[in-house]
Write a structure and sequence with these properties.
single chain, 7 helices, 3 strands, globular, DNA binding, Metalloregulator ArsR/SmtB family transcription factor, WH-like_DNA-bd_sf
């Protein structure tokens, strides 16, 4: 993966937040990302498809939902950029992280 491809894939707020949340805690299912990002299923799925095409995430179907994680083949330098950014982005991720906390996360998929 080239740095240009990597950073182009990060240029959208939804894709960036999704990747940073996956860096924090993986795997996450589409319903959990919908909750965290306060977005509809089609929008979250479209952005995840773009991240898959970029080679940044991979998904695993479990029943009705697909669970995503950072791609196992992600280069170390790219993983480090995401980890450093997630650590330094408390304000940027404050609301999505809060939405994933507690009971809301536990019931996210059962409500969808």
């Amino acid at each position: 993966m080239s740095p240009l491809t990597f950073f182009k894939c990060l240029s959208d707020e939804t894709r960036l937040k999704s990747l940073l949340l996956l860096t924090d805690r993986q795997p996450l299912c589409v319903c959990e990302l919908m909750l965290a990002l306060d977005l509809s299923q089609p929008k979250v799925s479209r952005h995840l498809a773009e991240l898959r095409e970029c080679g940044l995430v991979e998904g695993e179907r479990r029943g009705r939902w697909v669970y995503y994680r950072l791609h196992v083949g992600l280069p170390d330098w790219a993983r480090k950029v995401l980890e450093d950014t997630a650590r330094a982005s408390a304000d940027f991720l404050l609301e999505p992280r809060a939405r994933l906390a507690g009971e809301a996360r536990a019931t996210a998929c059962s409500a969808s």
